[in-house]
């Protein structure tokens, strides 16, 4: 049976890229937003609802700046803490990881230098000297292992990260929520600060949008 090596190599590459979220060229996020946004709301002044601990957290303040920039693009106005504001914004975030095992098909030529256990000849026995790799009758499906150019499974293990962001916008006076959004993203990037700008942008895609609608947002990584 003739083996289409290019076809199997292509399938292996495609499978790997899908598992690695577009070969790490995009940040893909699942976004679910709920809202009861008043159509007549004209005053979009807001403050961040923060604790003393959050105010002293440099990472938190960095993400606060990212959210403020997105809100500004949507016509919101941030006011200083203590000043009157119509809205209050709060958020939380996190990251977790898990080990992933992938088994994919690869094309292997046991005669390649460095391939474990196999070489151009098997040992120094009579078959190895006489037949060599190509004509050895014990090579093809025999005791010496798979034939050159066959498909064998290859296992790889890596760490997959789940990044999440949750944002609430509520009335400052009575605390009634007007907008809440959950953003979840998986990928190989384990530095939350690198991914957070994309999570924030995804959170406000089509703001305020249809309540309860889940959708996928893909954002190209800068420089990719």
Automatic annotation (TrEMBL):
This protein's name: DUF4136 domain-containing protein
Keyword Cytoplasm part of the UniProt annotation: no
Alphabetized Pfam families for the sequence: DUF4136
Organism in which the protein naturally occurs: Glaciimonas soli
Keyword Signal: yes
Keywords, ordered alphabetically: Signal
Record-linked Gene3D superfamilies: 3.30.160.670
DUF4136 domain boundaries: 31-209
Signal peptide extent: 1-26
């Amino acid at each position: 049976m003739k083996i289409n090596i290019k076809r199997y190599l292509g399938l292996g590459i495609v499978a790997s890229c899908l598992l690695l979220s577009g070969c790490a060229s995009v940040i893909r996020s699942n976004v679910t937003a709920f809202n009861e946004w008043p159509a007549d709301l004209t005053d979009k002044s807001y403050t961040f609802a923060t604790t003393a601990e959050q105010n002293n957290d440099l990472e938190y303040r960095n993400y606060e700046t990212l959210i403020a920039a997105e809100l500004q693009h949507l016509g919101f106005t941030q006011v200083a803490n203590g000043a009157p504001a119509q809205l209050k914004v709060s958020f939380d975030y996190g990251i977790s990881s898990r080990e992933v095992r992938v088994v994919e098909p690869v094309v292997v030529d046991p005669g390649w230098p460095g391939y474990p256990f196999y070489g151009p000849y098997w040992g120094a026995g009579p078959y190895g000297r006489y037949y060599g790799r190509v004509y050895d009758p014990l090579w093809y499906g025999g005791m010496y292992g798979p034939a050159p150019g066959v498909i064998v499974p290859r296992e790889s293990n890596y760490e997959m990260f789940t990044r999440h962001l949750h944002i609430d916008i509520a009335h400052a006076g009575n605390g009634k929520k007007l907008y809440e959004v959950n953003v979840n993203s998986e990928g190989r990037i384990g530095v939350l600060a690198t991914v957070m700008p994309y999570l924030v942008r995804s959170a406000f895609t089509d703001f305020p949008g249809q309540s309860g609608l889940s959708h996928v947002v893909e954002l190209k990584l800068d420089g990719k």
